[in-house]
Amino acid sequence: MKPYKAKSGATQFMPSLSEIETMDDNCEGFCLACGETQSAEPDAVRYVCEGCGAAKVYGAAELALRGWCYADAKETTA
Predict the structure, then answer these.
(1) What global pTM score does this model have?
(2) In whole angstroms, how large is the CA radius of gyration of the chain?
């Protein structure tokens, strides 16, 4: 996961493609606000995070579809 600045100026987090694959295998979603994972459907949109309370949890498939991920080092060398 790596931090980035949202349009609002807030720091958010983005998972790597390999993290998305793992989340997809485990039926998990990812919170853009805090970077925590939690149980969620693959197409989850704006679920409330159990960790920080923000409505910023997206399912693994939804993150990949929207392009909210990055290629990590091991993926770029393959």
Answers:
(1) 0.89
(2) 12
